[in-house]
Write a structure and sequence with these properties.
The chain is mainly α and 313 residues long. 52% of the residues lie in helices and 0% in strands. The longest helix has 44 residues, at 2-45.
Length: 313
């Protein structure tokens, strides 16, 4: 009977304290390694003559104290909150602190995701970008069409219903020279097709007029501003032929129209970058409230706001 009782006590001791001893041992090893690293740093900074060996019992005392502080127990003696978990959490906190102390690199400017082609090829885009800059050039007052990203506005308009003439009556007969504006669109080609022909004509004229022995097949966007303006002027005056039924002046009118629209439309449509077009005209944009400005006698100048400003209210 005494042997049985002794065996039960031994079994209980092993089941209860053996897991705890394993956790204690692992945690003690971790703390001992940290402690020795600290001692090594101190030893390097202290001369050999003044260096004193630290007692080993300090290691055990430090390990026990940290273990009892971070470990929790239930009534049955099973470990609940272990020192290993606490050590891991402390290590993570130390890593976060080190990362926060490191100098942050300069943040890169936020990309403008509207600068994406939806209709033009890259070659066509360069031609329209150059032509729109001739129509709306940069001056002392403000930026030109290129800086305002007008060519992206035109590209996005052509990719939609406006470019495909989806809302126009496209069944003949057409009377482009006799019809009045109230009679609507008078061409059998869509605006996309007219732009394709216009870009092709500008490149053709650039190559025809300004090819050299050193450079053949020159493109419109490779010309000087004066050379580009000359071709556009001839197109405006219908001195060039776009197609048998559509005059070149029709293309120029469309190009001039969307160039001006792109310079002054809301930036959400791709042009008028940073609302610089509005700033040149002192246009306030989409202000949510003008009550205070209306009551004043003098002119009130205010920074323009785009449609996305509604999210700030």
């Amino acid at each position: 009977m005494e042997k049985i009782i002794l065996l039960l006590l031994l079994t209980t001791f092993v089941n209860v304290f053996f897991p705890i001893s394993i956790i204690f041992t692992i945690y003690s090893i971790g703390n001992t390694l940290k402690y020795r690293e600290g001692v090594a740093v101190i030893k390097r900074r202290t001369s050999m003559s003044e260096e004193k060996q630290l007692p080993k019992e300090n290691d055990n005392h430090l390990a026990r104290r940290n273990f009892l502080k971070s470990a929790g127990f239930t009534i049955g003696g099973i470990a609940v909150g272990g020192g290993i978990v606490g050590a891991l959490m402390n290590n993570k906190e130390e890593e976060k602190t080190k990362q926060s102390d490191q100098p942050k690199a300069h943040s890169e400017p936020t990309p403008n995701f509207n600068q994406a082609l939806m209709y033009f090829t890259p070659e066509q885009f360069k031609v329209i970008e150059a032509a729109s800059e001739v129509i709306f050039p940069k001056t002392d007052i403000g930026p030109g069409a290129k800086e305002l990203l007008v060519a992206y506005f035109i590209d996005h308009q052509l990719a939609g219903n406006w470019g495909s003439s989806a809302k126009e009556y496209m069944t003949g007969p057409f009377y482009p020279t006799k019809a009045v504006p109230e009679q609507g669109y008078q061409y059998h080609l869509t605006r996309c097709e007219i732009f394709d022909l216009g870009i092709e004509l500008m490149n053709k004229e650039a190559s025809k007029r300004y090819n050299t022995a050193d450079k053949k097949n020159i493109r419109y966007h490779e010309l000087t501003e004066d050379q580009q303006a000359t071709i556009l002027k001839d197109m405006e005056e219908n001195k060039l032929t776009l197609s048998s039924s559509i005059p070149a002046g029709m293309f120029f009118s469309l190009l001039r129209q969307v160039t001006i629209e792109g310079a002054y439309a809301d930036p959400m449509y791709g042009g008028n970058k940073d609302m610089a077009g509005w700033s040149m005209k002192n246009f306030p944009g989409h202000q949510m409230n003008l009550k205070e400005a209306i009551m004043k006698d003098e002119l009130v100048r205010m920074a323009p706001k785009s449609l996305n400003s509604q999210h700030n209210h």
